[in-house]
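Researcher: Batch entry, complex prediction.
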Amino acid sequence: MCRWMGWLGQPVLIDELLFKSQHGIVDQSLHSRMGAEPTNGDGFGLGWYGVGEHPALYHSVAPAWGDANLRELAAHIESRLFLAHVRAAIGSPVQQTNCHPFRHGNWLFVHNGFVGDFRELRRDLMLAMEPDHFAAVEGSTDTEVVFRLALGLGLEQDPVRALEHTVGLIEETARRRGREPMVQATFGVSDGESLWAVRYATTGPARSLFASSVASTVRELYPDNARFARLKDDDRLIVSEPFADLPGVWEEIPQSSAVRVAPGGVFDQSPFAPLSAPVP
Amino acid sequence: MCRWMGWLGQPVLIDELLFKSQHGIVDQSLHSRMGAEPTNGDGFGLGWYGVGEHPALYHSVAPAWGDANLRELAAHIESRLFLAHVRAAIGSPVQQTNCHPFRHGNWLFVHNGFVGDFRELRRDLMLAMEPDHFAAVEGSTDTEVVFRLALGLGLEQDPVRALEHTVGLIEETARRRGREPMVQATFGVSDGESLWAVRYATTGPARSLFASSVASTVRELYPDNARFARLKDDDRLIVSEPFADLPGVWEEIPQSSAVRVAPGGVFDQSPFAPLSAPVP
Amino acid sequence: MCRWMGWLGQPVLIDELLFKSQHGIVDQSLHSRMGAEPTNGDGFGLGWYGVGEHPALYHSVAPAWGDANLRELAAHIESRLFLAHVRAAIGSPVQQTNCHPFRHGNWLFVHNGFVGDFRELRRDLMLAMEPDHFAAVEGSTDTEVVFRLALGLGLEQDPVRALEHTVGLIEETARRRGREPMVQATFGVSDGESLWAVRYATTGPARSLFASSVASTVRELYPDNARFARLKDDDRLIVSEPFADLPGVWEEIPQSSAVRVAPGGVFDQSPFAPLSAPVP
Amino acid sequence: MCRWMGWLGQPVLIDELLFKSQHGIVDQSLHSRMGAEPTNGDGFGLGWYGVGEHPALYHSVAPAWGDANLRELAAHIESRLFLAHVRAAIGSPVQQTNCHPFRHGNWLFVHNGFVGDFRELRRDLMLAMEPDHFAAVEGSTDTEVVFRLALGLGLEQDPVRALEHTVGLIEETARRRGREPMVQATFGVSDGESLWAVRYATTGPARSLFASSVASTVRELYPDNARFARLKDDDRLIVSEPFADLPGVWEEIPQSSAVRVAPGGVFDQSPFAPLSAPVP
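Model: Structure tokens for the complex:
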């Protein structure tokens, strides 16, 4: 179990959202309200688009709430698009190469959830990867495998469709091995321009996922809030858990759906369903 | 807020008590029931008496629940006397030199609690230390200052009396500076032969502290428990929180008191009250 | 490039050999004389047989020369059989799961050297592993792959023969992929009773490897040395580099050979040559 | 022994100077040519002026050459003024609070060298600090004490004069304690506008220190070098060791002198000599 958040909008100092928000993601790392695991202290990751080639990554195995470097970076890096992730390890080691976001070229990927029976399926799934992606695997999480499968299935062309194929492939692999398939997921994906979010579970309720409302709505609801007054109509947050208990500010992303957020106020929603994967 | 435990008795593999006990200290690091802070993920420390000169220390800044090295050590080190501590940092950095136990020669020291207004009193308290102890300070916690003050006030001759002088000195220093004095503490001390525990708060309730009952009592209460069947009459645990909800196994150590546990079934209890410190 | 040492003999405090020896392995971590890389600061590992089930592991990403925990453990753990390893990373991340020794049941494994073109061969080699071993891979080094291949090829029955098959398999895999095969290696292996060491390179000189002479020879050469006076005839050290410039104390293990050291003064030497691996 | 570098000039991606320069500071961390210690693997620090309030800090206890986060930050952070430091610990623990630069408000401070007999003088020197600075000490290095003494002696008004008083105070303190005084130092200081560098040793040769020549000189010497072609006349580097063996590019800063570099091509040099400190 993990928690993640994504921001797309005007450039902001990252700690505005990471540390200064009530019940923000670092606070959630210490005591989440909605998650299966209340503590997410097994590593932190931040990926941001800014200067330099490709997005930058900061991966730390220290709990987010006590990481002095994270506080420094958040207070001194400004970004118009970033993804942050706090991790609660379930089985795989606490190490930087297991921290989200994962990156390939200009793409970032985060995940809250798990692949059921991953240990048993790992070999089959890694064989299904393209050899170049196999060679690039550095950690031991299910998420890195999901990401590299999706890259081989066209993530860079159509991320939602590629994830539908990836989920389909994982579910089929589980069935072929006589296992009950289970993909439990909210995914966050970005290419530096758009931010996609997916919410899905093979069975039962999926992990929670919310998007912030259009800025004008938020400002109208809370006309006296100085922070909200600065919000622009292009600004959007995608979060595992709402930052604070503000009615009207958060829209739940329905299960089995995907959204795309992009500059100019784009907020597209579409259904998400596993597709059978082309034979690799 | 922190949690600690001490064992004195027959040699045991440390993980018997650290990991295999229901609601043991590592479990408490993730979700304490009685503490002010439910998560104690800001470092771990273990001090044990065994082979080699003086007690050994293992200090880690990783949360106890995810520290692979800690699991290895606990599963492969046997000791008849050890102290373990999980830390929830309140202000001072998460670094190995701030992890308990602190050590001087053959002595180990752990602390759950805090010195009120420590930042304001730190200079006065460090000046009150003996110069050699000042030079030896490596970290920035209140506990290390308490320990080194107590060493200068005779901890190695009479640990309880030295701590009474130390607490008196701290409270006087606070008053002299116009502060409301506050020492909130359970202390654990050992010289490799005895284990002392102190429970005290200047005002209000002190942090919780418990000792395990005499082994024969425990065995009678739970005649079918294989673990308890192995308990010998000399075996004693001192803990911040009872390991499990077993009525009759735990005796609360009263506030403003000290206990000494030693081989041969020694379990001495005495009152604890601040003493005015000799002028350093 | 890395450095390792193994001890089999009377129980010793580990720091006798790790820190107190002139030009010992921790000293080598800071400035090796014989290696391709003079600094081996990318992690440390220690595996020892003692109390508890199976051998214990301590893996650290801090440089060996500055790791306070390592000094503590070495000064307080006694062992009759241990392996220590300092790492100079070549390509793979500095993380605990990439630190040697690797362990499976009662077996430990260390490696100085590399598999040529590992990134290109990794997928083929991991497919050649038994599925259970594939699932158990936690890190991203070539050594972990070599170890798990060897386990599938009978390491637990005949470690030298299994390593001959493993090296053969790796070289064949390289050739099949149109690569010049290259296995550069000194391997250290133990089951808790014997200590095996292998020295081999596909082409050119292999990494250096030495065994200490029979204790009686050492004592005769240096009759006034108090440390050597304590040596027993069963005691043997295997090292990447001689600990000090003591003529007569060290015997070079010839290239393309394997030795087995065991209690009772056993010191068997045999040739080592790649064998074609049975099709997995 | 340590190494440091400072940049003041046009905004650059930090890795241009940190990783891409031949024999740059990260390379020096692995094998310095001029230092007393060839390896500087006991922590790294970077302080930069950019967005956000005050300069930012990144402190790491991993060796600079293997720190994935450092590579990420350097490749994605642009700054017109930054200080970087690699540490070789001499006595004090390897921990983030002992990493340079130290910071107070808008000021950064780095140091290569040491205070002789620091352990014996530490108490006296800390007592000489202003109480607020005493309270703010987080680590255990001599450098943090030097910095906080200098702050109390007017660093923010006149950094060179304050350091002259600080060095005088330290030397007097040593003499008063019957010790041979020894301050061995190159200091780097910045307020975000200027960059000051000091080179001094109480006796014998001081640590090496160099400034880059005026950009036009560098370009004339190496007309075909694309990197140098981009240099502007305001750009200046201050370094412990020249980055590469380029004759003409580096000017040694004489012993017992201070320089100030500032925008507009300012490069002022002045003598540096200890002053008796006002009684605190």
